[in-house]
Design brief:
Helices cover 73% and strands 0% of the residues. The chain has 9 helices and no strands. α2 crosses α3 (44-50), α6 packs across α7 and α8 (139-159) runs antiparallel to α9 (166-180). The longest helix has 22 residues, at 54-75. The chain is elongated and about 60 Å long.
Length: 183
């Protein structure tokens, strides 16, 4: 196992946090590496030591969260749907700064598209179009519908500063999804 220097991790976290804070204040296009370095209280060369540019930094942040969400889905496949959903929503809550910034900023469409694609892939695992209420439905359309509805509700929850706990959200979303996904 590769051992990572804690100082490197702290620096990377400071850089990521700086970018997110800046994105919540101004447009991504107007953010410079110097802005990020100043906010993270490091020099520009340190940012470039870890990332090619601000686009690489943003791409890596998005990829990290998509991978983390996929890992949660995979490791919790043996849990019932409700508990798995609670853990996914808790992850969103724990990473509120990232998700609120990504879903509220102008550069959010790239992240939102990846988030939707991740959910389409996950929901396809649960969609059965051979029996029950979804018999004869188009799997692609159903997966698109459910994933976009789920992401829309997550956006609403985050933009409204999480008015319900992850457990309450899992119950509410779970009730709705049960009507559409499960047979």
């Amino acid at each position: 196992m590769v051992k990572v220097d804690r100082r490197v991790l702290r620096t990377q976290e400071a850089i990521k946090k700086a970018l997110l804070e800046l994105m919540s204040e101004k447009k991504f296009d107007s953010i410079t590496i110097q802005d990020i370095a100043d906010r993270a209280n490091i020099n520009r060369a340190t940012v470039y030591l870890h990332y090619l540019d601000k686009f690489d930094l943003l791409d890596k942040m998005i990829e990290e969260h998509i991978v983390n969400m996929s890992t949660i889905c995979e490791t919790e496949a043996d849990l019932d749907w409700f508990e798995s959903t609670v853990h996914c929503i808790e992850y969103l809550e724990e990473n509120y700064l990232f998700f609120s910034t990504m879903l509220a900023s102008e550069g959010a469409s790239f992240f939102r598209n990846q988030f939707v694609e991740h959910n389409i892939k996950e929901f396809k695992k649960d969609i059965d179009i051979t029996t029950g209420k979804n018999k004869g439905q188009n799997e692609e359309i159903l997966a698109e519908f459910v994933a976009n509805a789920y992401v829309g509700v997550v956006e609403w929850w985050i933009k409204n500063e999480m008015p319900y706990s992850p457990r309450e959200m899992a119950e509410k979303v779970g009730d709705l999804l049960e009507r559409v996904v499960e047979s």
